[in-house]
Amino acid sequence: MANLGLISGDKPLMSRKVSFRIPYVTQWGQHLLICGSDRLLGSWNVKKGLLLKPSHQGEELIWSGSIQVTPGFQSEYNYYVVDDTRNILRWEVGKKRKLLLPDGLQDGQLLELHDLWQTGSDNIPFRSAFKDVIFRTSWSLGVERPLGITQNKLDQDGSAILQFRICCPYLEEGTSIYVLGSSLKLGQWKIQDGLKLAYAGDSFWQADCIMGKDDFPLKYPFYCKYGKAGTSVECGASRELSIDVTTGYSRFIVLSDGLMREMPWRGAGVAVPMFSVRSEADLGVGEFLDLKLLVDWAVESGFHLVQLLPINDTSVNCMWWDSYPYSSLSVFALHPLYIRVEAISENIPEDIKQEIRETRVQLDKKDVDYEASLATKLSIAKKIFAREKETVLKSKSFQEFFSENQEWLKPYAAFCFLRDFFETSERSQWGRFSEFSKEKLEKLISKESLHYEVVCFHYYIQFHLHLQLSEAAEYARKKGVVLKGDLPIGVDRNSVDTWVYPNLFRMNTSTGAPPDYFDKKGQNWGFPTYNWEEMSKDNYGWWRARLTQMGKYFTAYRIDHVLGFFRIWELPEHALTGLCGKFRPSISISQEELESEGLWDFNRLTQPYIGKELLQEKFGASWTIVASAFLNEYQKGFYEFKEECNTEKKIASVLKSFLETSMLVESEEKLRRKLFDLLQNVALIKDPEEPRKFYPRFNIEDTTSFKDLDPHSQNVLKRLYYDYYFCRQEGLWRQNALKTLPVLLDSSDMLACGEDLGLIPSCVHPVMQELGLVGLRIQRMPSEPGLEFGIPSQYGYMTVNAPSCHDCSTLRAWWEEDEERRHRFFQAVIGYDELPPDQCTPEIVHFVLRQHVEAPSMWSIFPLQDLLALKGDYTTRPVIEETINDPTNPKHYWRYRVHVTMESLLDDKDLTKTIKDLVRGSGRCYPQKDLESGQANDVESAKPHLGSELPSLTQTNGLSKKEALV
């Protein structure tokens, strides 16, 4: 905030000048302007904002402009990049700037604001992960009043008041900030003589100093911290200020120097699904209160973060299919699976306690038994509810919870009742409740309703889930550990959200991903795509509410498939695979465009191209049997699918009955895949809603439909294919992301990380950088073209790195899957020409993890399985059993359970020491412990490594990579 508060004087003020100055590099056709709350700055109408003028000063492009203001002027403002017609191309991220005139600013004196562009990364320290957890302190700073400076000190011509202003989000108690420079008033580089800054609130520090014309040009290369912990100084290039002293008038210059340039903070964490955690107290599955043990283990291991998979209720089908954590029944409700029934009440009778003890033994299995665990917990919870329902439902704490959450809680409880009553989540089977209305909802959940008690049970469960997760979340904060959640990209089509807000979803479509590392045929997740146009009408209220709810428990979150906010891979609802889709939004290929290129036969290009030769190649001698059952011959030697089996869903349905009567011995899965191949053998996909628009099929050149075309048609389609997938959409997708992502980021204080794996458009990473979204880097899936294995030492700071994730095999399994790939990795990354060992030994695991933890990334987050592989005792289990998800299988059973309890891991001092030594040796920060008591401090005291160099990324403790591995 520009408010010097320095000048005293009685002379009446009529008009004075405020000038703005900011360095910013633009491209041709781009301009900078200021838009703010005052009418002089456009009243937040960018079309009426103050357009700035560019000028070159050395190697910098400086944009500047000025306005004449009257006494008492104040305004909020921000900078915008616009095109020639003032359409917004980019804007600053973060808090709005504030401008107040200095007290006593007189006519003829100039206020200069020297600003720096605010990016999303500048706002990172103010996210709750840092503000409320990592940099959390037990002491608070009071705003200090700057010393006054009287007007007569500005009598000298060409003198200026400088306000030095720096943002420092973290400061240890008893530490001060100074600015040093070439001037005598800035200490001539001596800290003890430097200019001490005062705290101005909101993590900003400032100090004012009068400079004469002989002090310019002024060099002030750095700010520094000085206190009991010693001295730490900024890194980076020197700052320099030059002014035209020949004008003879005095001025006030506010130097907003952005964030203090410290060595970037780097931390580490562990990732594990909630259901996978094992403890001595759980009932066959991880529970929210187990997070306290996991946090204790994280602190012991030097980790600042615990990352989970989604924890929302997924009980759509009431069977093991619901183990899929990304298919939400409700994006607000927590999953009853994670409740600890023993903690529901302090007055559980002995017979129920005995039932819990017996059940604990029965459910203590190698993997999660999803159905048995959930059914058991709900059964026991109902017995406790029957005893104490009146007391709990009338309690003040429950009433507060209900009042705060009733907007989603009421329809959620009603949906659960209707699902169980009709024994299906398929709303078309619900009679008059098929379509949601508030009137019908209120009648169903009213106290007069016969089903009121059943509905209240769902309130009761959500209340206790909230209490238990809140307790674990607060415990993590106090221990200095960030709890990171997961935001799924979709919701189940039979969910509370699609029932209540059907207008927000395109129910005739399905969401997925084009072919990539995870699945060469593409993925079909089955979720309806979002109706972004409808969502925008209330400024994305559903998304904002969703993020607000997450922010009650988490201080960071992962955006699943962040590409979906740029564009989504949209499939027709009748598709089962993910191959024949299109991007939404996207610029289609029009019929006129195709005709201008000489392509006219649209039936040939869009219908499955099935010739006799292809049938013989696919089905051999059985081709005639298959053809007679599924196809019609419309032209000699060419076939088309019959009406009753011309979609993937129809084929899957007809195939079952066909195999029951046919003599074919081929498996249903293989036969279905071959029939799907026939159906997908097209060159273009026609838009089902706009028949004059077309999209090239992914991997078009792999189809015989393409290969049998004439050379001219092939060349045209190849060019259009490349243009559609890699060129024409970039601007549209960027614009789409800049409409939606800022709403998410502004809806909470959580630190946001985006899962940006797969086919990445070139616009994605610049937008993520601009918005302060932290990306993901997996070594086996490098984002750099031409690399088989990523190079962790070359990752950018705004990234999370990991050797594996829940969507791929563990490090141990990946090593043992492919002998040739293992050899290439051993040679290229580790540096050995010899044959690598067949097993992924703890030494190899240590080397790979060390590569990651020493990388420049903000975070290194390791799956728990990869950390356990550091010790041979934990590698006796077959590697296949450690897999969390198989993306190629839409009906995968998510049931992996860690084979050792958290209590045992806490007792394993050898493993925690090995991990903590890795973190310490990398220069990453870690939660501090009181060494005498052995207890972790409630207050985080890890310090950024200021003034020191990053650890070597190619050497460790003086050893080469080869020596270190040996």
UniProtKB/TrEMBL annotation:
Domain CBM20: 10-119, 154-267
Main location: cytoplasm
Source organism, top-level taxon: Eukaryota
Reactions performed catalytically: Transfers a segment of a (1->4)-alpha-D-glucan to a new position in an acceptor, which may be glucose or a (1->4)-alpha-D-glucan
A Gene Ontology cellular-component term: cytoplasm
CDD domains (UniProt xref): CBM20_DPE2_repeat1, CBM20_DPE2_repeat2
Sequence segments annotated as region (Disordered): 926-966
Subcellular location: Cytoplasm
Alphabetical list of InterPro entries matching this protein: Carb-bd-like_fold, CBM20, CBM20_DPE2_1, CBM20_DPE2_2, GH, Glyco_hydro_77, Ig-like_fold
Keywords: Carbohydrate metabolism, Cytoplasm, Glycosyltransferase, Transferase
Pfam families (alphabetical): CBM_20, Glyco_hydro_77
GO biological process: carbohydrate metabolic process
GO molecular function, one term: 4-alpha-glucanotransferase activity
E.C. numbers: 2.4.1.25
Family to which this protein belongs: Belongs to the disproportionating enzyme family.
Protein name: 4-alpha-glucanotransferase
